[in-house]
Each structure stands twice: as C-alpha cells, then as structure tokens.
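Box S1 | Example of a co-folding query
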Amino acid sequence: MARPSSKAVAPKAKAKPAAKIKAVAKPVYVLNGPNLNLLGQREPHIYGSTTLAAIEKQVAARAKTLGLAVICHQSNHEGELIDWIQEARTMGSGVVINAGAYSHTSISIHDALATLDIPVIEVHISNVYKREAFRHHSMISPVATGVICGLGVVGYDLALEAIKSKL
Ligand code: DQA
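Box S1 (continued) | Returned holo structure for DQA
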C-alpha cells in the first residue's frame, strides 16, 4: 500500500488576537470659520470669555473620553474651510463646523458639506435666533445632520457626542 506522501507544509502565520489589532480611527474635523480666532476678545457678552485655543483643548479632552480623534482648524477664508471639508470626505469620520458668518451666506460651504456622507454637526455658540434677522437663516443647516445653537462653548462637546452617537 502506498504511504501517504508527506508534503512540506509552511508554518501558519499566527493570527493576532483581535483585541491587539488597533483600528486607526479617522479623526473628526472640528472647523471654525471667520472671526472665531478672536474668541475671548470678541464681543464677550455674546460669545463668552473662552479662547479658541481653550475650546480646542477642551474638545481634544472630550474626544479622548469618547474614544475619538480630532483635528481642529480655524480659518477666516472660505476656500480654506472648503479644502478641509473636502479632506474630511476621505480622511474624516465626521465634521463639527461653526462656519461663523459664512453659515448665513456661503453656498460654497453648503455644496462642500453636501458631498459628505459622514455626520456633520453645525455649531453656534450664541443663540442666533435671538439675534439679528440676518442670522436666522443658515445655508448649511439643510446639509447638516444636526444643529447645536445657543449653548455656549459646551456646544462643541455636545457636537462630538452627537457624532459619536452616529458612528
Ligand atoms: C456664530 C454666530 C454667527 O452669526 C456669527 O457670525 C459668528 C459666530 C456663533 O457661534 O454664535 O461668527 O456662528
């Protein structure tokens, strides 16, 4: 009787236990628009005394507790905000955006956000509905997943929680 042939078998690569494989999470883009670099100095009776640097620190700390990564950017230029929104399309897991006055005027930011299929939360520190009529309309709300407005700087933390709940 023929003996079964003894084939050489390459040693199997050991599978890594699932818990040890760290997923590289895509960050949430936290974008602030024009004049928000002046937070802390700008109309503190409306926007409070917290600086943008302090908000970004607070957002990074909240993200950590939620297991999220964040990238924070601020620009006074519409095109730069649009470039970051486009970057978030492929590189981000969500967008938190306070587009400042561009919220009320920018069709381009509306169009950029409309290309995303990740959650988008629009934030306003002040309650824009208690203010001038020109702030009552947002060009970006129709393409946002949700809007947080009038809760002060805690709105950024709440926006991150909202993103987390959508992932
Ligand atoms: C704002 C409200 C806008 O109307 C204004 O132009 C801003 C800030 C807010 O955070 O309350 O720049 O987005």
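The CA atoms of residues 34 and 76 lie 4 Å apart. The chain has a mean pLDDT of 90.
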